[in-house]
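Thread amino acids onto this structure.
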């Protein structure tokens, strides 16, 4: 039993530390995942504190992982681990049954788990945590109690600093398909020989108050009394999943400019602000100055937002943004860069660099690096 307890401490401790570090690396991204859960449970009001919750969970996972590894504060640590895993097991189980949240966010964008995989992972963790809980009063510190408590304190300080640092700048390690060096068009195409996913189209029609699903083959084409209600595509066979499927850029009139931006072989600057009303306002003069300098050198400089056209135009006039704004999906923009606004540098569809608004360079600094 002693050996099993030790193995349980190692597994649980390392998994909690790794999970916490991945979340702390991208606290804003984790907060977006919490927002999804709040929406599913009709608790949208919780979104006001989703970022604070994301940062707290990131830090507490690291601290609990360290505490169980070194074997200190075991009564409080065991209770906290048990309550957390019971809640997460219920949550991932709900997702696995309903399919309403397709990714728990347990390991951020680093390791994508399906709802079922997340649920099974939590069941395994629950087994090991139950062992720790039962044995909590006989677990001895791996080192001396004083050294162990010191390590936990240090982990708390470092975890909090790292989480805040990644929020105020950008993730230290970017696991998203829009990381620096990634080519967007390449990630929108199936590799040669890749198995494409297969879907079945279901047609939902209504007749005499009764809805019925048909396939293209069994639909009664000769009966015009059926009234169409909806069409949905059902995944029949798994295949290669494209990293990027929803990248698009349109203007206020709905004209698509995606290829114009991706095909541009010169430096192309894109200010990404998923919501202009929540955008950092202090950085706007610096963005405008950068845009003027970039356009003077012949480079394209545009804004990209999910805010509606009227509000966007009012924002441009208020902040004297001379560059044009185009439109895209809010979730896509949140994925591209964890900053509102953030600046992305493209060339031929490849992401050359990106900057959080706290780290925006001057055009002179950009020139020194890229226009030698």
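Threaded sequence (372 positions):
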């Amino acid at each position: 039993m002693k050996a099993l307890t030790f193995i349980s401490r190692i597994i649980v401790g390392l998994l909690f530390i790794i999970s916490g570090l991945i979340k702390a690396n991208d606290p804003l991204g984790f907060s977006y995942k919490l927002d999804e859960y709040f929406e599913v449970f009709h608790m949208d009001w919780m979104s006001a504190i989703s970022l604070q919750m994301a940062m707290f969970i990131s830090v507490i996972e690291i601290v609990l992982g360290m505490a169980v590894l070194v074997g200190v504060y075991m009564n409080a640590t065991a209770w906290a681990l048990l309550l957390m895993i019971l809640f997460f097991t219920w949550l991932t189980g709900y997702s696995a049954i309903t399919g309403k949240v397709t990714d728990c966010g347990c390991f951020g964008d680093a390791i994508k788990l399906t709802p079922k995989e997340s649920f099974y992972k939590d069941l395994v963790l629950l087994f090991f945590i139950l062992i720790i809980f039962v044995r909590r009063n006989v677990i001895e510190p791996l080192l001396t109690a004083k050294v162990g408590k010191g390590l936990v304190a240090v982990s708390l300080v470092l975890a909090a600093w790292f989480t805040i640092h990644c929020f105020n700048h950008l993730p230290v390690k970017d696991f998203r398909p829009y990381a620096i060096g990634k080519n967007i068009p390449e990630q929108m195409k199936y590799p040669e020989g890749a198995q494409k996913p297969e879907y079945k189209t279901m047609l939902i029609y209504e007749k005499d108050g009764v809805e019925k699903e048909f396939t293209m083959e069994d639909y009664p084409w000769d009966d015009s009394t059926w009234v169409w209600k909806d069409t949905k595509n059902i995944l029949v066979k798994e295949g290669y999943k494209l990293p990027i499927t929803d990248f698009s850029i349109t203007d206020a009139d709905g004209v698509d400019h995606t290829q114009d931006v991706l095909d541009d072989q010169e430096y192309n600057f894109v200010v990404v602000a998923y919501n202009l009303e929540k955008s950092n306002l202090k950085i706007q003069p610096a963005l405008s100055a950068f845009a003027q300098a970039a356009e003077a050198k012949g480079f394209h400089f545009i804004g990209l937002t999910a805010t509606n056209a009227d509000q966007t135009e009012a924002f441009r006039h208020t902040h004297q943004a001379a560059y044009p704004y185009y439109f895209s999906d809010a979730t896509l923009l949140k994925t591209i860069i964890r900053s509102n606004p953030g600046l992305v540098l493209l060339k031929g569809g490849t992401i050359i660099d990106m900057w959080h608004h706290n780290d925006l360079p001057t055009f002179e600094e950009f020139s020194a690096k890229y226009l030698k």
